[in-house]
Design a protein that fits this description.
Elements: E1 12-16, H1 20-32, E2 37-41, H2 44-53, E3 58-62, H3 70-80, E4 85-90, H4 95-103, E5 108-111, H5 116-130
Parallel strand pairs: 1-2, 1-3, 3-4, 4-5
Helix pairs in contact: 1-5, 2-3
Amino acid sequence: MFWKKKEKKRPVVLIADDDSVMRTILRSIVEKLECKDVIEVGDGNEAVAELEKQRITLAIIDINMPEMDGLEVLKIISEKYEDCSVVMISGDAALDRINKASELGAIDFIVKPFKTEAVEKKLSKITKKLFK
């Protein structure tokens, strides 16, 4: 009897940030970590639309975005897409926002501005756990 080798699903990473430069920086970091399926969106509504289209493994979501903020997106993910892990990102490091993100299920929080090397190290640890 031949066993079919279980095919490993490729991780899909969603980057949601209204700043296109920030999306480009985050994409380059994520792609260095061997995550080649990366989707970029500029607001919360676009993020939710992508979640509805395909299975997202990891979402990196800015809190302050137009249309729908990142905490609202995180709430939707925690209610409907439990297989999606979320890292929140924001220029506002207020403790109440970090706590709210954590309560809603975010696995980590990145404060802008950041050092690329530090974010790469943080995301490397996360992707190694998620994409085994």
